[in-house]
Amino acid sequence: MTTSQKFGGNWTEEKLNIFTRYLDAYLIALQNQKFKKIYIDAFAGTGEIETRDGGQYLAGSAKRALASEKKFDHYYFIEADSQKAGELQDMINSEFPQMRRSVTIFCGDANDKLAGIISSVDWRFNRGLLFLDPYATQVHWTTLENVAQTKSIDVWYLFPFSALERMLPKNGKYDKWEDCIDRLLGDSGWREEFYKKDPQMTLFDLFPEPGQNDGERMVKDANPDHIKEYILSRLGTIFPCVSKHARIFRNSRNSPMFLFCFAIASESPKAQGLALRMADYILKNK
Ligand SMILES: C[S@@+](CC[C@H](N)C(=O)[O-])C[C@H]1O[C@@H](n2cnc3c(N)ncnc32)[C@H](O)[C@@H]1O
């Protein structure tokens, strides 16, 4: 018996609807092009979802991609959990048996397996749609760089906004998260971007502890809008085109949980214009 995965909030369906609308539009836009079309779902899951809060049952990204009316030439699914990867294969065997030959499932880490897929494809003759849908900070910046250098992949990335915010404490004591944040954002600029010297002079500044220099205390100086703009600007350093209309998904207490971003690796102004028009239209209209 299969076990559906439980995760997400009420943004899960919204995320999947946005992504599926883009996927359908993408396949129509490329239908008369000479390129082969490749789908990559790097955090694929099982194809079935039960949301944790709403008790809803939804078709996951893998099932939605396979069920689209127009088809990709090949589908790559990556899933770290071997049981889930097995359930995904069972679902494909029973619900999409005619498509088995155009599907490859990799069990392992998304960063490693994606690097393998990217290097095995000749991107002069192929175009890709990539879904990065991690639970948290699993996507390495080097993976995004690798995707961007194909110049041929459109990517939807569910950026782990709340995980990043949790690693940026108000008191500037981010030491234990530094490596993780550097890996997530790809450089060290976030320290200056999100922190400033504490303007409040305290007794601790007048009588610093041994080893602590005068004036060294840092405090956070960043709100969610600022953090969102920084994430988009970071993506803009490697992708030639990034939607400004990334959607923030919030929990029931209105706290930002994820930032759903769209980026285009193509350098063709025509391809960028079309992809951005489709993505922005979907992101702007609920
Ligand atoms: C949010 S779920 C993805 C759901 C899927 N997109 C869907 O719509 O059904 C994240 C999935 O990534 C898997 N995962 C976690 N870490 C991973 C990693 N480093 N590489 C690949 N998959 C990973 C989890 O087991 C889980 O199934």
From TrEMBL:
Organismal lineage: Bacteria, Bacillati, Bacillota, Clostridia, Lachnospirales
NCBIfam families recorded: tcm_partner
Name under which the protein is recorded: Three-Cys-motif partner protein TcmP
